[in-house]
Amino acid sequence: MGKKAIIVIDMLNDFVTGPISTPRVNHIIEPTKKLFEMAREQGVPVIYTNDCHTAEVDKEFKVWGPHAIEGTFGAEVIDELKPQACDYVIPKKTYSGFYCTTLELLLRELGVDTVVITGWQADCCCRHTSADAFFRGFNIIVPKETTDTTTEEGYIGGLEYIKNIYGGTICSVDEVL
Ligand code: ZN
Question: Has this prediction a pTM greater than 0.90?
Fold first, then answer.
């Protein structure tokens, strides 16, 4: 594998402490923070892909209810994982970090061929972002401590799907960089 970038999905107030939060998100914060620190030290780009919804318009609200509305506290990254000056932040409208965003262009400009996918949720946004990464020819790594979802079955199923269908490497956070 060649050049890597860390992608972090939806570590936003609404998902961690807000209306669509679940306790299972809390234990991924520390390992994710550790990974970011290692990445920044080594010059590996850290790219945030954050839900940034339009109030009363976006179709996702039918499934999840209102969340991560542009300009609100709920749409901000949690304090523990705030982006640094060297990081990149890309707003998104739905599950995949690639869909109608500049993520692919940024990865190409940076010369990245391997994406390290972290964040919330393993069986939804991480899985859909992995699909789009796979379609575009990127290698995929998922550090298992840096993602989860609402249930254990969903977590295991999400990681298995990324591994079996997109050829993703599932590893521990210490094995990524
Ligand atoms: Zn959303």
Answer: yes
Nearest to 150 by CA among 1, 12, 8, 23: 23
pLDDT digits (tens, 9 = 90+) for 84-128: 999 999 999 999 999 999 999 999 999 999 999 999 999 999 999
- 86: CA distance to ligand 1 center in Å? 25
Evaluate whether 149 touches 121 at the Cβ level (below 8 Å): yes
Residue whose pair of structure tokens reads 């109608």 in the numeric block:
100
pLDDT in tens, 124-149: 999 999 999 999 999 999 999 999 99
- Backbone φ and ψ for 159, nearest 5 degrees, come out as -70, -40
How many Å apart are CA 61 and CA 81, to the nearest integer?
Answer: 25
- Ligand 1 center–CA 60 separation, angstroms: 6
